[in-house]
Specification:
The complex is a heterodimer of chains A (85) and B (325). By secondary structure, chain A is mainly alpha-helical. Chain A has one domain (9-77). Helix content of chain A is 91%, strand content 0%. Chain A has one helix at residues 2-78. Chain B is mostly helical and 325 residues long. Chain B folds into 2 domains: 12-132; 149-323, no CATH class. Chain B is built from 11 helices and 2 strands, in the order ααββααααααααα. Chain B has a two-stranded antiparallel ribbon. In chain B, strand 1 (149-151) and strand 2 (157-159) form a beta hairpin. In chain B, helix 1 runs antiparallel to helix 2 (60-132). The A-B interface holds A 23, 26, 30, 33-34, 37, 40-41, 44, 48, 51-52, 54-55, 58-59, 61-62, 65-66, 69, 72-73, 76, 82, 85 and B 64, 68, 71-72, 75, 78-79, 82, 86, 89-90, 93, 96-97, 100-101, 103-104, 107, 110-111, 114, 117, 121, 124-125, 128. Chain B: This is Protein ABIL2-like isoform X1. Chain B: Belongs to the ABI family. Chain B: Residues 201-213 have a biased composition (Polar residues).
């Protein structure tokens, strides 16, 4: 009888250990996916930052060119004798 | 008016459609961002709930299984949300980059137009200024440069000495001057100057210069003979030649200085020259052997001085002919 109870306890311990390992495996999968998601977010942040930096640079260049154009057009329109030829 | 309304109506409709689409997209994007923000709170509340239920409830296995399902669903939902949000952000960024590229293209077009306008203005101003300036016009001169060689009649290259005979008139004057010089010198019968006896009868006072010279050489001499040799013919002295240096004479003839030498001017310079001609000499003078010897020697020196300037074979043959006189 005691032997049977010992076997049952051993089986229960084995089942518990198996369940614990399964839970650990599940947690590791979840943590791995969360890390992948985190890596994706970090990569997305870097890509978006670089894109935004390039866009900012383009906008700065465009702003300077527009200012230059504005000055040139203002100079030309301020001197109407150039257009009277 | 009606056409304007008809033409402006689709544009406004397109604009309203574009605004509606963009508004919907922005609303969806903001909803996704709100869901992501709420997901954090939901995850924290779910974790607290499962913790409490796991400690209080007896059905721990069921709670664990429910927690597992909830975690998987929450992770998948988060991935979906993040995927949609990142896609929308990427789309928005690409759209803005395209807009900026289009704006750069427009600015480049405007810059090119402005540059074209500036070039046109510069061109117009340059043309206006160029009409004011009177550019000098020069006549063409075909001058053989000094040191250039030209082909002679016998195939030898003749060295150009820097002086040339431009016109046929100059050449005729030169030829007449040589003839007159030959005629005024009597044949050296009395002098034993060692010409060959067979050659002597052929050379007489009526020596034709053109007969001994081929036409090609005449043509080449037309280009190479200098008009400044005529004063040398009349002067008969080497010292007078240095009066008109050839190096100082410009190769391009001036209008103020005629290329054909004036015989009258030379006659004014040397008024005693006609007295030396054979036709005007007295018979007594002719008999005078000393004078007879002096005149051929003078003519010889004169022709030597004349012909030494021309280093060509033709002139050498002419020199040998004239040397016999």
């Amino acid at each position: 009888m005691a032997r049977a109870g010992g076997i049952t306890n051993a089986v229960n311990v084995g089942i518990a250990v198996q369940a614990d390992w399964e839970n650990r495996e599940f947690i590791s999968h979840i943590s791995l996916n969360v890390r992948r998601l985190f890596d994706f977010l970090v990569q997305f942040e870097a890509t978006t930052k670089s894109k935004l930096a390039a866009l900012n640079e383009k906008l700065d260049t465009l702003e300077r060119r527009l200012e230059l154009l504005e000055v040139q057009v203002g100079t030309a329109s301020a001197n109407p004798s150039l257009f009277n030829t | 008016m009606g056409t304007m309304t008809a033409s402006s109506f689709p544009i406004s409709r397109e604009a309203s459609n574009y605004d509606e689409v963009s508004m919907q997209q922005s609303l969806m994007f903001s909803d996704s961002l709100k869901d992501l923000k709420n997901l954090r709170a939901q995850l924290y509340s779910a974790a607290e709930y499962f913790e409490l239920s796991f400690t209080n409830d007896d059905q721990k296995q069921i709670v664990v299984e429910t927690l597992k399902d909830y975690a998987v669903k929450a992770l998948v939902n988060t991935v979906d949300h993040l995927g949609s949000v990142t896609y929308k952000v990427n789309d928005l960024l690409d759209e803005k980059v395209d807009e900026v590229s289009g704006t750069e293209l427009r600015v480049s077009c405007i810059e090119q137009r402005l540059r074209t306008c500036l070039q046109y203005i510069d061109h117009e101003g340059r043309s206006q200024q160029s009409l004011v300036i009177n550019t000098p016009k020069f006549h063409k001169r075909y001058i053989l440069p000094v040191g250039e060689t030209m082909r002679g009649s016998d195939g030898t290259k003749l060295k150009y000495q820097g002086s040339f005979l431009d016109d046929g008139d100059d050449w005729h004057q030169f030829r007449n001057a040589v003839r007159a010089t030959i005629k005024e010198t009597p044949p050296p019968v009395s002098k034993g100057r060692s010409p060959a006896p067979s050659v002597r009868p052929q050379k007489s006072a009526t020596f034709s210069f053109t007969s001994t010279m081929p036409k090609k050489e005449l043509d080449s001499d037309k280009r190479t003979a200098s008009p400044h040799r005529f004063p040398l013919l009349r002067s008969g002295s080497v010292t007078n030649r240095s009066v008109t240096p050839n190096s100082s004479r410009p190769t391009t003839p001036n209008t103020s200085r005629p290329t054909t030498p004036n015989l009258s001017l030379a006659g004014r310079r040397y008024p005693s020259e006609p007295r030396k001609s054979a036709s005007m000499r007295l018979p007594a003078e002719r008999d005078n052997g000393k004078d007879v010897e002096q005149y051929p020697s003078k003519s010889k020196r004169l022709l030597k001085a004349l012909l030494s300037r021309r280093k060509s074979k033709k002139d050498e043959t002419l020199y040998t002919y004239l040397d016999e006189y």
